[in-house]
Design goal:
The protein is 25% helix and 28% strand. By secondary structure, it is an alpha+beta fold. A 10-stranded mixed β-sheet has the order 1-3-2-10-4-9-8-7-6-5.
Length: 230
């Protein structure tokens, strides 16, 4: 059985980000449930994320929860001792409709040196598509004339960690634009003194390939979360 949170020493910037985003870092026990005041506050897009956590390759995890439900979640976790059981019970424990789940959590301090592909625009620019407008920073886009082709949005979670999301128009896929954009965005985030993170669903093979190619190695880490019903 693992006896430590992670087998590697993480960068100080990443540790600072996880301390704020998940509520604590590193995990003090295999399943460390903490009351995280940030979970009761609007996140980067104005919505609430009542439960967010990270699990490392050793299976140790921090799960930060809205303080109003943290005691219930911690008590359940102490009995079950299993991350997936806790995730499955989150709708009842939080008293909210939705689902708990996990995805891949990646980060890098050494992005791939692909050639820049895009330009940075204010998200209010009329050439920016609707899916990029909710992000809370400038957006990185590839344009064909004034027509959007591909882009990256940045989720500024806190002053230490910024998450990258990428999308490419179907007709422009296969040209390597996503890899170039993600690498370009990651370099800017690092130049600003933050750590770039990249999250994706476990079955999103295309996104995993982009992340791997850009230097976001698969360390076996998972993001844990609750997704409210729409």
């Amino acid at each position: 059985m693992p006896t430590t949170a992670t087998a590697e020493v993480v960068p100080e910037t990443l540790a600072a980000h996880l301390t704020r985003w998940a509520g604590a870092w590193p995990p003090a026990e295999p399943l460390h449930v903490v009351a995280n005041p940030r979970a009761a506050q609007p996140r980067w897009d104005g919505a609430q994320a009542p439960a967010v956590g990270v699990m490392t390759e050793t299976g140790w995890a921090v799960l930060g929860v809205d303080p109003t439900a943290a005691a219930r979640v911690a008590e359940f976790a102490a009995v079950k001792g299993d991350v997936d059981a806790v995730l499955g019970a989150l709708p009842d424990l939080l008293g909210l409709p939705g689902t708990g789940g996990r995805g891949s959590f990646r980060w890098t301090t050494d992005p791939a040196p692909f050639e820049d592909a895009g330009i940075w625009l204010p998200r209010e620019d009329p050439r920016v598509p609707p899916w990029l407008r909710p992000f809370n920073d400038d957006v990185l886009v590839v344009l064909d004339g004034d027509t959007y082709v591909a882009g990256v949005g940045i989720k500024k979670h806190d002053e230490f960690g910024h998450e990258i999301s990428v999308g490419t128009q179907e007709e422009a896929r296969g040209r390597g634009l996503a890899r170039r954009l993600v690498s370009q965005a990651a370099r800017r985030i690092l130049d600003e003194g933050r750590v770039p993170t990249y999250l994706h669903a476990p079955d999103n093979v295309a996104s995993a390939r982009v992340a791997q190619a850009c230097g976001f190695a698969d360390r076996g880490w998972s993001v844990l979360g609750f997704f409210p019903a729409r």
